[in-house]
Amino acid sequence: MTRTGTSLARLGLTESWAEATLDELGWWVGDRPADGAEEVMWALARSPDPDLALRAVERLAHAASDRNEFDAALRSDPGLRGRLFALLGSSSALGDHLVTHPDRWHRLVTDAPDHDDDARGAMLRAVGADPAAPPAGSPGGSAATLTGSEAIAALRVAYRDELLLLAAADLAAVGEPDLPVLALEDVAARLADLAAAALQAALAVAVAEAGEEPGRLAIIAMGKTGGHELNYVSDVDVVFVAEPADQAQTRLASRVMRIAGEACFQVDANLRPEGRQGALVRTLDGHVSYYKRWAKTWEFQALLKARPVAGDPELGAAYAEAVAPMVWNAAGRDDFVADVQAMRRRVEEHIRPDHAERELKLGPGGLRDVEFAVQLLQLVHGRTDEALRSPSTLEALAALADGGYVGRDDGANLAASYRFLRLLEHRLQLQRMRRTHLLPSQNDTHGLRWLARAARLRPDGRHDVVGVLVAEWTRNSRRVRRLHEKLFYRPLLTAVSRLSPDSARLSEAAAAARLGALGWASPEGALGHLRALTSGVSRAASIQHTLLPVLLDELARSPDPDRGLLAYRRVSEALATTPWYLRLLRDEGLVAERLMRLLGTSALVPDLLVRAPEVLRLLAAPTTGHADELARDPAEVAGSLRATVARQQDPDSAAATARSMRRHEILRVACGDLLGVLDLEQVCTALTSVWVAVLQATLESVERAIGHEPPPARLAVIGMGRLGGAELGYASDADVMFVCEPVGGASDHDAVRYSTTVAETVRRRLAAPSPDPALVVDADLRPEGRSGPLVRTIGSYREYYSRWSQAWEAQALLRATVVAGDADLGRRFLHMVDPIRYPAVGIDAATVTEIRRIKARVDDERLPRGADRSTHTKLGHGGLADVEWTVQLLQMQHAGDIPELRTTSTLEGLREAREAGLLTAEDASELTAGWTMATRARNAVMLVKGKPGDQLPRSGRELAAVAAAMGYPPDGDPGVFLDDYRRTTRRARAVVERVFYGW
């Protein structure tokens, strides 16, 4: 080796001062390395940051009491070189500590005594406490002889000394490949023991500062300290137990937190009962009472790692013994699943979006994914299997694999990825002894190279060391995320799918326990569905093995996982011969996610899906620049339906085609509604549009089939009710009237007879039995109701309305509009009835009284027995009927002289009434809110139950599903939705009572 710029670059030295420093250290003589120095420089080259290490070793050489001894040891001791250069190139903070205390380098030589085994003694001796005496915090416990700033300084130096030794042993193999590698779990355990030792020393100092004989105090480590898996830099979570729990003990605990915080690490007591708001110290009975009565699920999850580490050992052991049974019964709590899911969501939402891809701890595929999954499995199965009750993540994961709760390969892969991510976390924190979990950015090449070298990564022929780091991080984070998503379920599939006997197997009892904990009301039934889906050796069974872990994870978040899994089985069996079905779910993640939400919420969707599977393709993510396929233009859909039906040769085929396309559209609208893609106005418009298109297409096909040339009459179909108002729901009938007019010299009798044949044929073909939602054409709003003729001529209508029309018939005409048949005839019919529905002088007081009387009678007689009027969407207070009758009364009173009120739409009528000053803005807003809430709720009931219904469920999973269909969180309290519904409709009812009833 000769000294050139290239040689220095090969050593990793890039700074301009490096050459002069090598000369000053005496490692170069002329143009060659000094005797014995070449190995030193190659060891320097293996340091994660050779420039940083060289600068630090120069400072250390100057500070050492015997520089020659230091230099000679470096040249002769490979172990010292490996430990020292790796340490100095990895941690500027520990390098500064070593330079400040230069004699400590002796502790890094190969034959130096191992001080790590006596961390507790070192900590206690540093503050003048006797390690052999009973621990501080217990009767007769030893106190420190040092107090105040002197004790804190001594404890800080002792703690850094121990960290220095541990980090050097941890990093040794980085600087010298022949040195042993210290296992990550050993490093984490020794860090936890060091933290415990520091707490013991801090307690000894606190007792000395108190100046009085304390009561009994035990410090319980939580989190990573309790789990024997601490990081280099981390808050140390603790809980204090005291006898008695008085002010003196509170002051003592506060002193411990202050002393340890100033000397070593932050002490966090926020995991105590009631968190920051709770008392800092409690008695053992106080803790037990709280956990029995008030604790939430996350608190039991935290207690999983509770371990006494300082203070009175008997009190600490009593605490651990008292809380353990409660920890292992937590999965049996009624709200366990909801709490865990909410907790998981909060963790994921805690990440800054711009940091998500670099977050080692909280990001997707990060450390928290592993820890969360392992802890959940422990809580579920640890009740009956004591082998799972380890506070250590890696030990617990190994036990889960040994017990068959996790596949052996999955367990091994997850553990390997966890170790890799923890190694990166340790190296990042060592650099400046700061708490961090954030990888360097992609633009920080120097930071990535340093981290890769500190993690013992090497170029692999395809990538440089930075490329290897990025590839390994990506591979491991993806693997963690994938295994995290399947971990709850893949062993279930192993248990139920009859794999080879030598496979790791989860017993069906354990599988049922897990499903029960995750929200399935009938775990045994779910196991049966899983068996059916994964049995055999077909390609479909193989794909189901891959899909189900993710699908079940999504189903567990839905309001009714049991119904969702049954529906998924039904859909899968019905589409077993559809080649693209499973492939679509496998390749399109959003399709699978959306489908599980739909199946776990709605009974209508799976009923339609087995007969309209092509709609599944619409669930895919929208392509760039295109709208979601679920939000198609209703006019385009209607035109396509009419054109397709028109191509059919006979009425039966035409009706079948119309039904099929209607089924497709109802399913598309239902999916868009449940997934939040369509709002209420879009839903009503789409459903009305498809109904109108079906009527038009069927009418045209029937007229062609009758083949009467020329036809003796024109026929128009007048939409009434919700059809006329373009406000149809999923379960709405089509209210219509048929009006005809003779042509070509035909008599009224011939025209009516022909038109009646057409109308009855249309009604009969559409009402034919079908598993789809009913197609009922209801003509009961015609003159004389069911007793009157189905079809009348326009002249007959004119005569009837001029002589016999009643108030309710004029009111019904407010929704009349042309929907099918002869458009000109329809327009003339509407022009003819305008004076009846929009009287020029309004209506008199007697008519108003009559309308109010009819409304009261309808409310009283038609409300089903036992119905709850506060939650009946149609006839309940503030519901659909209340708002619609109010708008219609205002129209009959004022539309004669306010043309803007002449609308068939309820919401548009409310807007125009407000503009005309007939309603205050507040009253219009309350009525709009009530009508919108009731309409959406009525639709949601149909979507959830798969059959019409106006009454909201009172409780249970159906109510939760209705709330979810309304956009409320699926794992939230459905009572919030009920409260909102009652409040909204109650306010609407108050307006109805004033405006409609005049109260």
From TrEMBL:
Q: What is its EC number?
A: 2.7.7.89, 2.7.7.42
Region feature Adenylyl transferase, mapped onto this chain: 500-999
Task: Tell me the segments the record calls region Adenylyl removase.
Answer: 1-492
- Which EC class heads this enzyme's classification? transferase
Which cofactors go with this protein? Answer: Mg(2+)
- Output the Gene3D superfamilies linked to this UniProt entry: Beta Polymerase, domain 2, Nucleotidyltransferases domain 2
GO MF assignments: [glutamate-ammonia-ligase] adenylyltransferase activity; [glutamine synthetase]-adenylyl-L-tyrosine phosphorylase activity
Q: Does the keyword GTP-binding apply?
A: no
UniProt domain PII-uridylyltransferase/Glutamine-synthetase adenylyltransferase: residue ranges: 342-488, 854-996
Alphabetical keyword list = ATP-binding, Magnesium, Multifunctional enzyme, Nucleotide-binding, Nucleotidyltransferase, Transferase
Q: Where is the signal peptide?
A: none
All residue ranges annotated as the Glutamate-ammonia ligase adenylyltransferase repeated domain in the record: 149-320, 593-831
Looking at the Swiss-Prot or TrEMBL record, what is one Pfam family this protein matches? Answer: GlnD_UR_UTase
Reaction(s) catalysed (UniProt annotation): [glutamine synthetase]-O(4)-(5'-adenylyl)-L-tyrosine + phosphate = [glutamine synthetase]-L-tyrosine + ADP; [glutamine synthetase]-L-tyrosine + ATP = [glutamine synthetase]-O(4)-(5'-adenylyl)-L-tyrosine + diphosphate
Which InterPro entries is this protein grouped with?
Answer: GlnE, GlnE_rpt_dom, NT_sf, PII_UdlTrfase/GS_AdlTrfase
- Could you tell me what this protein does? Involved in the regulation of glutamine synthetase GlnA, a key enzyme in the process to assimilate ammonia. When cellular nitrogen levels are high, the C-terminal adenylyl transferase (AT) inactivates GlnA by covalent transfer of an adenylyl group from ATP to specific tyrosine residue of GlnA, thus reducing its activity. Conversely, when nitrogen levels are low, the N-terminal adenylyl removase (AR) activates GlnA by removing the adenylyl group by phosphorolysis, increasing its activity.
Q: Which PANTHER family match?
A: BIFUNCTIONAL GLUTAMINE SYNTHETASE ADENYLYLTRANSFERASE_ADENYLYL-REMOVING ENZYME, GLUTAMINE SYNTHETASE ADENYLYLTRANSFERASE
Tell me the protein family, please.
Belongs to the GlnE family.
Descriptive protein name:
Bifunctional glutamine synthetase adenylyltransferase/adenylyl-removing enzyme
Source species? Pseudonocardia alaniniphila
